[in-house]
Specification:
Elements (H helix, E strand, L loop, with lengths): L1 H9 L4 E2 L2 H7 L7 H8 L3 E2 L5 H14 L4 H13 L3 E3 L2 H7 L5 E3 L1
Helix pairs in contact: 4-5
Length: 105
């Protein structure tokens, strides 16, 4: 992810990491220094998981037969900004949005 962030910075782009994804990865403490650096980078945006987004995530989950609200938040953020999604779980995200642009890491 840091290599991707460096590429994005060189191209003057940005990366969106939905708040729920940050929560899944964050465990605190000194072992999270790299992750903390990633989250605080000026190229990284952290969209909130507020009530309207949570409702939209729930609706997407219901339509796709999924229960993963965090994955749904990733799909919705990517749709909103026409972003590709970088993930290790292509299959789960493909179930939520068969037309999503997915990049496996």
């Amino acid at each position: 992810m840091l290599a991707l962030l460096q590429l994005v910075a060189r191209r003057r782009g940005s990366i969106r990491i939905p708040a729920g994804v940050a929560g899944q990865a964050w465990r605190g403490g000194s072992r999270q220094a790299v992750l903390a650096r990633l989250f605080s980078s000026p190229e990284v945006q952290i969209p909130e998981l507020d009530l309207p987004v949570a409702r939209a995530c729930g609706e997407l989950c219901a339509a796709a037969g999924s229960s993963n609200v965090i994955d749904a938040s990733v799909v919705l953020a990517a749709r909103e900004h026409d972003d590709a999604i970088v993930t290790s779980d292509v299959e789960a995200l493909r179930r939520l949005d068969p037309s999503a642009r997915l990049e496996r890491i």
